[in-house]
Each structure stands twice: as C-alpha cells, then as structure tokens.
Amino acid sequence: MSGAGRTGDGHGRAGRVLSGLAVAVGCVLFLGGFVWGALLYQPYTVPTDSMTPTIGQGTRVLAERVDGSEVRRGDIVVFKDKAWGDVPMIKRVVGVGGDTVRCCDDRGRLTVGGKPVEEPYLRGGGPASPTGFSADVPQGQLFLIGDHRMTSIDSRSHLADATHGSVPREAVQGRVDATAWPMSGWGMMDRPESFAALPGGTSRPGPLPLVLAAVVGGAVLILGGAAYGPVVALLRPRRGTGGNAGRDAGRDGEGRKEGTAERVR
C-alpha cells in the first residue's frame, strides 16, 4: 500500500473517531439538559388574565422549583394556599415580611416601606390600584398582586384576614423564569429594577439559558457527528475508475490490431 493510501485511511479513522465522540458528547448534553430542566422546572398554564399584560391568559410558563426563602420582591411566583382556594395561582410579589405596602401616593404609585415603586409592566397610565389600601406584611409572609390591577383577585381582596392578605413563603411552589408558549411570546422574565433598590434586592435568574444551551448544543453535535460519514462518502473521489477505463481501452485497441494483422496475413 502506498504512503498516500495509508495517510488517507488514517484521516478516515480519525474522522470516524471524532464523529463518534461528537455523537456521544451530544447525547450526554441533550439528555442531560432535558433531565436537568425536568428536575429544576415545572410548567404551568396561566388560567386567568390577572397577570396581563406580562403574562396572558392561557400562556404556558416555566417555573423554577425554589424554596420560599429565595423569593424576592418583584418575582412572579406560583403558590397554593388554602385561604385562596387551595389551587395553584400566579401573582407578583410586591412585599415581604416587615414591609408596609400602600397605594397610592400622590402620583398613583405603589409604595413599599414608604418608597415609591415604578411599575412599567402595568397596563395603561392609571394608578397602581383602583382602590387604596395599606397592609403590614408579617414576618415569613409575602404580599402578592396581579399585574392586571383592575381584575386581579389577590392580597388586596384578603386584607381582612389575620395575615393582612399575605401568604406564607412555604406556599410558594416555583418562581416563573420564562414564558414557553405560545412561541411568539417566548422569553425570560425580567427582574423589575425598581425593586432592586429596596433591602434584599431582586433575585437572580435561574439556569434556564444554560439548560437550553445544553439541549441545543447536544442536538447540533448529534446531527453533525451523524452526518459526517454520509458527507465524506459524497465528497470522496472515486478511486480506480480512470485506470480501469484506460486498461479496458488498451485491451480493445490491442484486439483490433491483432484482428487487422490476421486479415493482412
């Protein structure tokens, strides 16, 4: 075998090894990303319009499974509390234990601990709540309001309760990180900057971008590695075709010469 042939075979073996490695790594990333996402996130469907315009009715969201102690002001959470019907609900946290939540100031804004909060996610230019209220949030509790302040049934509707409309942190089942469906509205949930200036700040986004990167990257490696063999086969030049044709033509020529010689004789 020639040196060129050995070199070509070596490159082919290396390519096959690398393509197999790409498929193996891709499978680990793809399956690992799905498992990771399933362990960390729970999908929910928003049943009402109480969170519009941020999250519309019927929207599918992804909520990171977090402990209630990790929740901060501005977070959108999924929770379940017996006083609220013992069914999963989605609202925004505007107050935590020790806060005094009031509405509204002279500019129609919500105040937390006496500090006004700008809420750009609200619809229209009206006040932060159509009715005024004031609530002291007990320690270990959360004060929750929907973004559609005209129709949302939330902590404002439970102000007469012993907890002043708040729910325990333990009632939280997840923190909404992204909207998943419909695809036209897909995106990550922003943390409102207005809450960042308050004590405790805002929460950090979950690892959903990393999960998606693992799944997409794994899919690319699997497809790329699986396509290596067929692509190389299509691009590889056919060996020996020209030589065989030449030899066949030579034989035909010799046969014709021999036939001519016989006729001459």
From TrEMBL:
Domain of life where this protein originates: Bacteria
Claim: Protein biosynthesis is one of the keywords in the record: no
One GO molecular-function entry: serine-type endopeptidase activity
SUPFAM superfamilies, alphabetized: LexA/Signal peptidase
Region Disordered, residue ranges: 237-265
Transmembrane regions: 21-41, 210-235
Annotated keywords: Hydrolase, Membrane, Protease, Transmembrane, Transmembrane helix
Record flagged with keyword Membrane: yes
Pfam families associated with the record: Peptidase_S26
Membrane topology: Single-pass type II membrane protein
Peptidase S26 domain mapped to chain residues: 25-181
Biological-process GO terms, alphabetical: signal peptide processing
Matching InterPro entries: LexA/Signal_pep-like_sf, Pept_S26A_signal_pept_1, Peptidase_S26
GO cellular component annotations of the record: plasma membrane
Chief location: membrane
Record-stated family: Belongs to the peptidase S26 family.
Name the record gives this protein: Signal peptidase I
